[in-house]
Design goal:
This protein is α/β, with parallel strands linked by helices. About 35% of the residues lie in helices and about 10% in strands. A hairpin with a 7-residue loop joins strand 3 and strand 4. Helix 9 crosses helix 10. The radius of gyration is 36 Å and the shape is elongated.
Length: about 425
Amino acid sequence: MGENKGKHLDLSKRQMIENGLKQNLTAVKIGLFIGIDPTNISREIKRYRIYKSNNDESSNTICKDCMYKASCNQQNNSIITKCYSYTPLTCHKLDRYPFVCNGCPKKDFCPLDKYLYEAKGAQAHYRYNLVETRKGLNQTADELQKINDAVLNGVEHGQSIYHIANSLDEVKVSTSTLYRYIHNEYLTVQVHNLPKVVTLKKRKKKIPANYNYKENKGLDRTGHLYSDWITFQVKNRIVIYWEMDFLGVNKKSKKVILSLTIPKISFIMLYIIENPNNQKVIDIFNNIENEIGFNNFLALFEAIVTDRDCKFNDVKGFEYDQNERKRTSLFFCNSTMSNQKPNIENINSQLRLYIDKKADISNITQNQCYELASHLNSRILNSLGTKCPIDTFINIFGEDILSKLHQHKVEPKDVSPKDIIK
């Protein structure tokens, strides 16, 4: 048998202990067989042994548990209540290993009370303790109030539960503990207050044949397909690249939001565009290049993966700057295959918490987009090991480039994406 280090005993291991006791095996032999220390075997037996009373209602004399009972000539006298020769029978097996009577040959006719180890009973007792000791709260009233205030304030400002759990100063609790407190209604925040816990999504219908844009008909994307991207990524060992998409808005809206993200670090950039077309999207990249410089642009934008929106059709305009220098590589996902750019799809679903699909975004400014991106990039993420995207970005590209992209770090307690766009 292998070692059982760090693991709780299960029913099968307890059954082995019971069988070992019946065979009068030592704790060392039982421990070697099931892979645990002999001391733990002794503790297990003492903790879960069961008391069995040997009350014999047919005999109410003191003779029944006297060690001289067999040779005493008064043993059949039913009225004896006091005897100077009475010496209580004792058994030291219960004081030291094995602590129980399982393997005792005298068990069936022994007049003493007994202790027995039964695997099923031990397992049931263990399960009961396991559950009961984890019920309730391991917090004082003051600590719970601090947690409640922090969660309530964080949720109101659009912070995730993970972010809240890792930004608490005075009281330390895990993300799963916070979720449990909420589900068990220990806190003011209710389940329906969490952004994505109770959302329902309609089943997608079959995509109509006219889904593709008219402008895409006959367009040659040879060398820029998703299969080309896989080859390009492997051959060039690309780690940092971007996924790009528009955030869906009200069809009557003249403005749209262009969202970009680096999947590896979940860094986000947002840009507002009025009456979007190919050139206006390209102008955004031209402006970024002018602000951070050509060499920095090369390092930052090694590749871009996007969908087949007709406003991304000018491949040359994206890949080459105004001086005809190659600055990036553009690749297109297959039609209706949003899973080929899952990170930007996830980012857009998160943005829905702050920008409703039916909302009028005509009053949203670019500065608000910069600020919203800064708050989103300052969230503590589990995928980054309790770090935030903006710190990881600074470690890779430096604070100067971040500043030129009009973003800044927001302190964990001040992260409030809900307050940026109202």
